[in-house]
Amino acid sequence: MEQQDRRTLAWHETLELHELVAFQSVGLMKLKLSYRKVPDQELKEIYRKSIHELEHNLNELLKFYPSAPGYQGRDDDDDFREDVGFYAGDLLSLSKALVRNLSVAITETATPALRNVLTKQLNAGIKGHERIFNYMYRNGLYPSYDLGRLLGNDIENAQKALRMKY
After folding, report:
1. Is 89 a domain residue?
2. Do 33 and 110 sit in the same domain of this protein?
3. Contacts 24+ apart (CB under 8 A), 149-153
4. Chain mean pLDDT for the chain
């Protein structure tokens, strides 16, 4: 069996990298937008530390993008709508987390009535995820079938989050 070039990321780890960078970029933007509104100094300090940790994470993860299969850099002519993309990405992250959390909760449920409610909510969550994904895909905010553009969007969002003041 031939040894693969370990300087190139595998497809599955590239997709995990994408999910991590997209999720942390939106989270970082939310923390920075909220920072000034936090009234408690101790909580504000926790926010500040979380912001620095996410910035560190993104800076480390972005270094792997040039090694990703399909990465072509960012097309500067793409008129990505920042605010719409941020809000849509935030809703997509929430819907993914909801589906995951409900799925785990169902596996821990022994009470049939609760299992039925969680299953109903899971199915609704899946439909909600489909709605926001389709919206993002139709509007060019989630080019899921174009890995190069997908990774380029990640870099743009991460860099925007890193540049934001708080």
Report:
1. yes
2. no
3. 149/75, 149/78, 150/18, 151/14, 151/18, 151/65, 151/68, 151/70, 151/71, 152/71, 152/72, 152/73, 152/74, 152/75, 152/78, 153/80, 153/85
4. 90
Where do we find the tokens 């399909």? 70
Q: What mean pLDDT comes out for the span 120-127?
A: 97
DSSP string, 55-85: HHHHHHHHTTGGGSTT-----TT----HHHH
| Beta-carbon contacts of residue 93 (< 8 Å; ≥ 6 apart) | 22, 23, 26, 27
In a shared domain, residues 53 and 97? no
- pLDDT score recorded for residue 78: 45
Co-location of 75 and 86 in the same domain: no
Verify that 46 and 15 share a domain, yes or no. Answer: yes
Tens digit of each residue's pLDDT (9 = 90 or more) over 9-35 = 999 999 999 999 999 999 999 999 999
Full residue range of the structural domain in which residue 40 is found: 9-80+145-166
pLDDT tens per residue, range 72-121: 775 544 444 668 888 999 999 999 999 999 999 999 999 999 999 999 99
Q: How many domains does the chain have?
A: 2
Answer yes or no: do 149 and 95 share one domain.
no
